[in-house]
Write a structure and sequence with these properties.
With 112 residues, the chain is mainly beta. The chain is 0% helix and 38% strand. The radius of gyration is 13 Å and the shape is globular.
Length: 112
């Protein structure tokens, strides 16, 4: 969960909403079971992608990202230290900074 959010914002996906973009503040973004696209925007965000085949970008700030059972594509190369929890699927792919902490089944996520 984001720490000391000046204006915390909860963003939850709903039926038909597939592209979710966070605010410039610290956001809590929660996905569903569909294939969705998330961009945390600025701020220190907490993103839970859900179980679909999702595309997740943390955006600027130190973010915490959780992927689900689907094959997710991660874009967390933003020169900030992020914490990424890869879900049950070993097929998550993407790019991360060397300073990012990757937990779980993130074997196919490349660091740069």
């Amino acid at each position: 969960m984001p720490k000391q959010a000046a204006r915390p914002c909860l963003i939850r996906t709903t039926a038909g909403k597939r592209n979710v973009r966070g605010t410039t503040y610290d956001d809590l973004i929660v996905g569903g079971s569909a294939a969705e696209s998330f961009d945390g925007g600025a701020g220190n965000d907490w993103i839970h992608a859900g179980v679909g085949h999702d595309a997740v970008a943390g955006g600027a700030g130190s973010d915490e990202i959780w992927t689900g059972r689907g094959r997710d594509t991660l874009r967390v190369r933003d020169r900030s230290r992020d914490l990424v929890h890869c879900g049950e699927s070993v097929s998550d792919v993407g790019r991360a900074d060397r300073s990012d902490q990757l937990l779980g089944s993130c074997r196919r996520v490349k660091r740069r």
